[in-house]
Automatic annotation (TrEMBL):
Pathway entry: Amino-acid biosynthesis; L-proline biosynthesis; L-proline from L-glutamate 5-semialdehyde: step 1/1
Reactions the enzyme catalyzes: L-proline + NADP(+) = (S)-1-pyrroline-5-carboxylate + NADPH + 2 H(+); L-proline + NAD(+) = (S)-1-pyrroline-5-carboxylate + NADH + 2 H(+)
Annotated protein name in UniProt: Pyrroline-5-carboxylate reductase
Keyword hit for Amino-acid biosynthesis: yes
Compartments where found: Cytoplasm
GO function terms (MF aspect): pyrroline-5-carboxylate reductase activity
Length: 243
């Protein structure tokens, strides 16, 4: 069984995507018990026991808790595979915390819960590729690219939710009922993503196919550019990787 130290949002999404019984701990929140209730397995009161009993361990707590968690696990981690999903935490930091373990650095996103996630794995962690492929697409990257990976994939469900909110609110201001605007936008979002994929990621072609010279789309795109859409994404990336 996979053991989850921390059974919060991201660990829970992975566990639901994998869809198998788990071993899980939390810090008293009750979320480990809720996850076990849903998927089967066992809640444990002690991270060392969890590590001893798990086939592989996923670190699903917050990054700043690494040293405290590793100290609690101690020698139980000897010879174990420890998969970290901790944002901004290097392989060197993980290896220092778990010197007797095989450590793997992975950056997933929450759509893994639906098996439509993206997980980036730092080079050296290839043994975890098959596991994460069960819950979506996997990209193996040099470790130097992992922060940018997090800033473009892990955070993206939240960005897309914000973009959706903004577009739906604009539709409501234009006179659409909110529920109808939501349904229409989400269908458009899904279809547009499929179209971009079908066009092999050729964003310019997709834009040109929609944009009549001097027409409505050209006016809308110009307004988005004037209001700093590209700068907003660029600054968001800098904000994320800057910590
Ligand atoms: N939420 C997301 O979309 C993503 C999160 N991550 C990473 O996943 C990790 C968890 O983030 P979230 O799930 O969002 O946070 P969360 O707050 O939902 O979950 C963290 C969990 O860790 C547990 N915990 C704290 N101390 C513990 C301890 N000593 N022993 C066992 N469990 C303990 C807490 O009870 C909590 O349930 C973070 O390191 C974050 O950087 C990475 C990619 C995406
Ligand atoms: O917000 C966070 O810190 C985490 C890391 C990426 C997504 N959620």
């Amino acid at each position: 069984m996979i053991g989850f130290i921390g059974a919060g949002n991201m660990a829970g999404a992975l566990a639901r995507g994998w869809g198998e019984p788990v071993l899980a701990t939390d810090s008293g929140s009750g979320r480990a018990a809720a996850l076990v209730e849903e998927l089967g397995g066992e809640t444990l009161g002690d991270n060392a026991e969890l590590v001893r009993r798990a086939d592989a361990v996923v670190l699903g707590h917050k990054p700043y808790q690494l040293e405290q968690v590793a100290a609690g696990v101690g020698d139980a981690a000897t010879g174990k595979t420890v998969i970290s999903i901790l944002g901004g935490t290097s392989i060197a930091q993980l290896q220092a915390a778990f010197p007797q373990s095989t450590v793997i650095r992975a950056v997933p996103n929450t759509p893994v819960a639906l098996r439509r996630g993206v997980t980036c794995i730092a080079e050296g962690g290839e043994q975890a590729v098959a596991l994460f492929e069960r819950v979506g697409s996997v990209f193996v990257l040099p470790e130097s690219q992992m922060s940018v990976a997090l800033a473009t994939t892990s955070v993206m469900p939240a960005y897309v939710a914000l973009v959706a909110e903004a577009a739906i609110d604009a539709g409501v201001r234009g006179g659409l009922p909110a529920a109808r605007a939501t349904e229409m936008f989400l269908a458009t979002l899904a279809g547009s993503a499929e179209l971009l994929i079908a066009r092999g990621g050729d964003t310019l072609t997709v834009r040109r196919e929609v944009t009549s010279p001097g027409g409505s789309t050209a006016r809308g795109l110009a307004a988005l550019e004037r209001n700093g859409l590209r700068t907003a994404f660029d600054e968001a990336l800098q904000a994320v990787i800057g910590g």
